[in-house]
Batch of 2 targets.
Target 1
Amino acid sequence: MRFNLKATAALAALTIGLAGAAQAETTIRVAHVDPDDWQTSKKGAAAQIFKNIVEGESDLKVELFPAGALGNEDELVAQAQEGLTQVAIVSGAMSKVCPAASVLDIPYIFSSAPVAWDVLDGQFGKDLAEHCLDETGLRTLAYGETGFRNFTNNTREIKSPADMKGLKFRVQPIPLYLEMVKSLGGEPTPIAWTELPNALSTGVVDGQENPVGTIYNNGLHKLQKYMTLDGHVYGADFIVISDEFYEGLSPADQEVVSKAARIAGTMGRAIQEWSTADGVKKVQEEGMQVYSPTTEEIKAFADAAQPAVIDYLRGELGPDAEWIDRLQTAVADTQE
């Protein structure tokens, strides 16, 4: 009897130990390329609030890998697909594995951030997430925001597409951006991000385009005199998780993770909007001239840029081109 009691106690201790070890192994690795500072970084803020909620409401552990610690966005997406990283917060990289997501880059498709939020949080966003899940094995838990992109230059104030004629703009090496700038009358020049400050300083290009927060936080406003708040492209963050990992969680943990991601996306949006407003104020205080186009002027930009980009996307997407029409319908319904 004494032996049986000791054996039972040992077995119980071993079982508890193994359970504890298994529990400790349930760790969610969250990676992104932005700084970790929650006050200025939308992805940083989203990741930290995600961690706080998940760890506060479950036994799951969350490890954060900010500032590209695990690689660039393309690498983070691949790692999530391979199960090496459980959660990735990415923007442009998503359209490379789920081409339908590129419709979100149609210039001037969203008239404001709230319109974009309503579309992405509504049926269109849910359908796109389901489609991308089928394409990639990554479940989109929520959408965040990287902000609207705006043109800056060091030559003249831009109020219409005609003002862009002859100006060289640094763009990302993405065909959609090349088509957009060409259709607006500018000369698109693909240049690596790391080479941009030197290109602006030496006059290799006259201008560039980025969200306001990116422009201010990287000191680009010190190299450019004019900014036009045309908001030509709205950047969405995708908070994605390996679906295989997600399906392996208990229903209760799935609920916590999903809830945390939705709040994280909202937090990221709030930080990005604050960063934009604060950035506009600061660049003006430091001497930059900022112009906010009228509704009629934005329409002129849209009329010039959208047809060429949409034609390009239809050719690239093939059967997935239906997502262009679905997005246009969702935006129209939301605005009504």
Note: The chain has one domain: 2-335.
Target 2
Amino acid sequence: MTIEAKLHRANGALTTLSNGRHVWNADVDESLGSHDLAPDPHDLLDSSLAACTTLTLELYIRRRQMAVTDLRVTVDHVEDKDESGTVRYQMQRRIFIEGDLPEADRQRLLEIANKCPIHKLLSGQISIQSEMVDGSQHG
């Protein structure tokens, strides 16, 4: 599936994203010259992990008919640079589950959370291939 990002320069850096079925936005903070009208790309990355974790767990909980009454996932991140200037991105995910569950079930849910597709993608090696295309050629 292709994601398209279209910049709206009249609105600072507001960018509309689409996958052909859904539309959402991204922006940057006002300190970077925009209007802070939408989440920034780091928030979108963090939200991908939070959403994938929540949905993966919910599907497992439903299949197993577990006694979960509430499920919430938070993701925070810290960015820093090491001595060589390499940026390190550390994500902290917290999974809050309410319900009458034995500790073994809670541990199993943590294992399942670590199997969500976005967690696996972010934990693996990612390769990005880029090419420059003349914008006037875009149809």
Note: Residues 41-123 form a domain with the GMP Synthetase; Chain A, domain 3 fold (CATH 3.30.300.20).
